[in-house]
Amino acid sequence: MDFNDSPDEAAFRTEARAWLSSHAPANELTPGETIPDTEEAQRGRAWLRQLYEGGWSGLAFPTALGGRGLSGGEAAIFADEEGKYHLPKGPFTSIGTGMALPVIARHGSDDQRTRFIEATLKGDLTWCQLFSEPSAGSDLAGLRSKAVRADDGSGDWIVNGQKVWSSWAHLSDWGILVVRTDPTLPKHKGLTFFVVDMKTPGIETRPIRQISGASEFNETFLTDVRIPDSNMIGAVGEGWACCMTVLMGERLGSGAHKSGVIPLLNYAAATPDGCGGSMLDNGAVRLSLAEALAEEQGERWFQARLRTMVSKGENPGALAGMVKLAYASRYQKTSGLGMELRGLDAIAADPVDAATADLQYDYIYSTVMRIAGGADEVLRNQIAERVLGMPGEVRVDKDVPFEQLKG
Amino acid sequence: MNFDLSDEQKILAEQVRGLLAERTPYDRLRTLIDANAEWDEPLWRELAEMGFLGVNLPEAHGGLGLGELHLGVIVQELGRANAAVPFFSSIVLAADAIRLAGSETQKAEWLPRLASGEAVGCFASAEGPGPLLGRGVALSDGKLSGSKRPVADAGVAAIAVVQVGDGLALIRLDQPGVTRTRLESFDQLRPHYRLDFENAAAELLPGRNILQTLLDRAAVQAAFEGVGGAEACLEMGRGYTMERQIFGRPLASYQAIKHKLADVAVGIELARSNAYYGGWAAEVAPDDLPAAAAAARLTAIRAFEMAARENLQVHGGIGYTFEANCHFYYRRERLLAVNLGNRVVWADRLLAQQPGTQGKAA
User: In chain B, what residues touch A73 (CB-CB under 8 Å)?
Assistant: First the structure.
């Protein structure tokens, strides 16, 4: 066991640090600064461009496809160092590099790779994900949006349906899209995967008003959207396999988070207990916070174990889902605890009290952390089935033609 | 970075696991309980012969000179098997105390005997209800007076390391001034004793300010033991629910069961990761040890608690019988939850290590 870099890793880290120190600061967002979505997305593109020009794009991506072909360990080192800066990264950058690229690389044609990979790495193309639907979330394969061949002999596809939870769809250039092309087959088998230009006529995105007050998610309506056959990824009916490639990227990437337990210790210390001390003197508060902090530490070292597995070429599989499962519930619990220890003031604080405003936001936002990128219940099933080898769920719809399903 | 056990550590774990699987099956544990046995002496002798008792002790004193992670993988296997041996008392606590605080003479006299298993040590600190560290035992002019209870494994021990105030004393138990009284032990595989000292001859371990370090290092090992026990519970619960048919299908196919065991699995991985880090810190980053040990302790208590309780729960009524194997862990878990101070103590210790907070001193 060794936390120190190997000589090669150390050299790589030094190189990464040097480059970042001369490029990252000018691209940083000011903490607490709120800028319009359009500007944030613009700055995200600019940062991708700089990464590309500096040779820091697609680190673990094969060289034949325009990446650097480095190991997962080196990619993790760069992510470590990059994470020390407050850079404009988010779904508007990561859906492209973390989801669209792997699926195009694995299932796409040479022509598609040429058209999309470099442009995405450069930040010229940003992406959104058109997967979930109002009645197909955890059960994604139950989606109903459909594509049929145009009857004009062009080979084009005509898509109709509705997608939801498409982060930043209103500011993205292209979307990765999965739709049903054959309802006579069982649900997983009748799906096909496309990339779609978001400026295509018939695509309308409407922001969703979220409980946080923000609107970074959209619903996307697709009405007679025409997609050329050359934008189909993989073969007809290969949509589910494509989705699995995408979701694997999501699972591995969704461990990142910033709100930790340490700020809550300071928050408790700054809250009077009415007995001349602070809430950090309270035994119940101390025990709850310490247990959360101990879990947070465990999760950090668990991620180090996962990284080690990846760097040895092992696939952590459903183990990776444990990170988000543990984190999301703890995030909800600790932000709720923070509000409680603050007292009634947590409900309507002084306008200058940014810490309480942050906690209120965290408590609201934690709900979606438990749902997005694999709901708690889905992750528990996966851990039970794939890590512990317990039986799969009863799937009454598995071998039934989709068009015969109820609902 | 390479955050994984070494191949050598993994092989060591397999060796220990293999030996324990053969020598201490659950029926053996039942036999020991029925016989009101002090310990599984043949197993202890075998562990000694294999060199496992001295794994982290210096070569100069008869040990193998390996580190805390090597020790940890052994302790984890002992936890998995619920072995009835005084390893934690003798090696993790007594030998480590002598190693950390003993004079050269004391080390030379006792470490080789502890490493060979010829002598067993125990560790005495609590004095009845209340904190781990008692205040009533005094050492004066080389004479020890007062009472300690409960003390694990004192029946088979030749020596005790006794906490006296902030220091530690070393005492031979086989002398007129020492009375050992066996207590009814909640953990039926780890006998506990009351030790009464009446002007018993004892010597101070001269090292100062090592008590907390000793407990930190032991907390990491207790985390390894807890992870081993929790893994055994998870495996047992999984195995039972896979076999057991209920309402026409395996019990393991119900989400209520799957989700419970998935949560146990997550708890184990967090605890294991903290234990690894604690072992690493104990070896090479002593400044990180207090926080690492506290985090390992807290997550391991949580994981083993959840695993021991839910394992019995998924067994249903059979889990409440002596013939089933859940109870060994259900009882051992409570011992581990309190044997180095409860989680309130370790919560304070963890928070006290955080810079910039007004953490209470632990």
Answer: 1
Mutation target for B interface from A9, A264, A293: give the one with most B CBs within 10 A: A293
Q: How many domains does chain B have?
A: 3
- Domain encompassing residue B47: 7-116
- Residues 6 or more apart in contact with residue B310 via CB below 8 angstroms: B233, B237, B260, B261, B264
**What residues of chain A, 355 to 384, have a C-beta less than 8 Å from chain B?**
377, 379-381, 383-384
pLDDT in tens, A246-274: 887 655 544 444 568 999 999 999 999 99
Domain-embedded: residue B362: no
- What gap in Å lies between CA B257 and CA B243, rounded to an integer? 13
Q: pLDDT, tens digit, for every residue of B39-78?
A: 999 999 999 999 999 999 999 999 999 999 999 999 999 9
Bridge-based pairing state of the strands B159-164 and B245-246 = unpaired
Q: Are the C-beta atoms of residues A227 and A159 closer than 8 Å to each other?
A: yes
The CATH number of the domain holding residue B257 is: 1.20.140.10
Q: What is the pLDDT of residue B362?
A: 35
Q: Which of residues A90 and B297 earns the better pLDDT score? A: B297
Q: Which CATH class is domain A128-237?
A: mainly beta
Is it true that domain A254-387 has CATH number 2.30.30.40?
no
Nearest CB to A265; choose among B277, B344, B351: B351
Query: How close are the terminal C-alpha atoms of chain B, in Å?
Result: 32
Beta-carbon separation of A388 and B5 below 8 A? no
Nearest CA in chain A to B291: A294
B148 and B19 fall within a common domain = no
Instruction: Specify the pLDDT at position A259.
Output: 65
Pair B112, B194 in one domain: no
Element (H, E) at A11: helix A7-23
Amino acid at A43: R
Is B270 part of any domain? yes
- Residue B192, H or E segment: strand B192-204
- How deeply is B290 buried, as exposed, middle or buried, from its count of CB atoms within 10 A (0-12, 13-18, 19+)? buried
Boundary of a domain, candidates B74, B89, B116: B116
Residue B357 lies in a domain: no
| ipTM of model | 0.95
Query: What is the DSSP track for A207-228?
Result: E---TTS----EEEEEEEEEE-
Of B97, B116, B135, the domain-final residue:
B116
Closest alpha carbon to B97 in B9, B160, B190, B147? B160
> Assign residue A128 a region: left if phi > 0, alpha if psi is -120 to 50, beta otherwise?
beta
| A319/B10 Cα distance (integer angstroms) | 20
Domain residue ranges of chain A, discontinuous segments joined by +: 7-89, 128-237, 254-387
Bridge partners for A191 per DSSP? A180
Does one domain contain both B89 and B128? no
pTM, 2 dp: 0.93
Please indicate, yes or no, whether residues B75 and B138 belong to a single structural domain of this protein: no
